[in-house]
């Protein structure tokens, strides 16, 4: 039996993929801290998790032992569960957090450390300057803007939150009227930065890469990629790929950083089409469900291999374009 703890909203897609691949008599457990039946009701057994992280870990271990669950996928807070890995192992449970040690989380969660380690390992990575105050931010911008366009994002964060592209000609009101454009003049950004009531977090100032972005979802075991699908973002659609320079770079990064589980590596191309690492997410992505449309059930591959069952047969569909749409899901009977 396998248990999927709270993850991204794509936890629903993970459960669906696992259910398609596992024998019918293998129970799937799912849980979430919030009341999310549109996600968890797809499992055979569902729970609401405790809110406190330490209480949650105690509860997960006790429940897994009582229900004879073999594999636990940590989901959203892999780092917290990685702290407790020895407890899970002593209890005879297989814990999957996205990594095999806290060192991996330290390196991939902090983008400045990630950039430094990737460069040390010879992995092409978007260069970045870390700024922790206004003077450093201004100096970093002046250095990089002499070479081309510049962008910025928090050193720690997810979902691209806090990402902005500096454009000197951007309408000062545009970032409020159309925040999804993610464009702002540096002067306006700097004014807001200096006016912050609380000190802003460390920021990464980077050259802006104008090429397309790839999001590579993969199943890894002790740093070894087992199965993978890349989604190249093209306008409103995403193109699924299995080869190319971006994929090769992502696989090397997952191996170097010793990823373990269902993880996601993101790259972006420069103007000449050369890919550079953006980040590694030691968890499954929000778009993991798209990969099933390309013929590979990554969640099913993960679940079957961890439980010792034959992997689902995949039939690759080349040049598949996918797009997410909003659908209604029943949240209560």
Task: Describe the protein's architecture and organization.
Strands 6, 12, 13, 14, 15, 16 and 17 form a seven-stranded antiparallel beta sheet that branches. Strands 3-2-1-4-5 form a five-stranded parallel beta sheet. Strands 7-11-8-9-10 form a five-stranded mixed beta sheet. The chain folds into three domains: 2-96, Rossmann fold (3-Layer(aba) Sandwich), CATH 3.40.50; 104-108 and 211-322, ATP-grasp fold, B domain (D-amino Acid Aminotransferase, Chain A, domain 1); 127-207, Dna Ligase, domain 1 (2-Layer Sandwich). It has helices at residues 11-21, 37-40, 53-67, 78-82, 85-90, 102-109, 111-120, 134-145, 174-177, 186-195, 245-256, 298-307; strands at residues 2-4, 28-32, 45-48, 71-73, 94-96, 98-99, 129-131, 150-154, 164-166, 183-184, 203-207, 213-221, 224-234, 237-241, 259-269, 275-281, 321-322. By secondary structure, the chain is α/β, with parallel strands linked by helices.
């Amino acid at each position: 039996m396998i248990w999927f703890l709270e993850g991204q909203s794509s936890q629903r897609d993970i459960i669906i993929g696992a259910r398609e691949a596992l024998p019918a008599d293998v129970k799937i457990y799912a849980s979430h801290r919030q009341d999310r039946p549109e996600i968890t009701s797809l499992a055979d057994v569902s729970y609401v998790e405790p809110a406190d992280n330490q209480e949650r870990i105690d509860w997960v271990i006790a429940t897994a032992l009582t229900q004879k669950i073999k594999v636990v996928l940590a989901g959203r807070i892999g780092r917290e569960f990685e702290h407790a890995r020895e407890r899970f192992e002593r209890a005879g449970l297989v814990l999957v957090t996205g990594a095999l040690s806290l060192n991996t989380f330290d390196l991939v969660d902090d983008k400045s450390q990630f950039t430094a380690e990737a460069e040390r390992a010879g992995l092409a990575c978007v260069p970045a300057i870390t700024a922790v105050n206004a003077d450093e931010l201004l100096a970093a911008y002046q250095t990089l803007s002499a070479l081309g366009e510049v962008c910025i994002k928090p050193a720690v964060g997810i979902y691209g939150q806090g990402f902005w592209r500096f454009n000197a000609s951007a309408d000062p009101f545009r970032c409020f009227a159309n925040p999804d454009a993610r464009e702002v003049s540096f002067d306006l950004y700097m004014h807001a930065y200096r006016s912050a009531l609380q000190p802003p977090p460390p920021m990464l100032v980077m050259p802006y890469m104008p090429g397309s972005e790839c999001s590579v979802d993969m199943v890894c075991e002790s740093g070894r990629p087992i199965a993978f699908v890349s989604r190249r973002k093209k306008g409103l659609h995403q193109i699924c790929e299995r080869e190319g320079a971006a994929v090769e770079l992502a696989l090397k990064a997952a191996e170097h950083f010793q990823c373990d589980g269902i993880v996601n590596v993101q790259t972006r191309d420069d103007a000449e089409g050369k890919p550079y690492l953006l980040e590694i997410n030691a968890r499954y992505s929000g778009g993991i469900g798209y990969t099933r449309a390309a013929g590979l059930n990554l969640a099913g591959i993960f679940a079957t291999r961890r439980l010792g069952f034959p992997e689902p047969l995949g039939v690759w569909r080349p040049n598949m374009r996918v797009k997410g749409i909003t659908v209604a899901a029943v949240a209560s009977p």
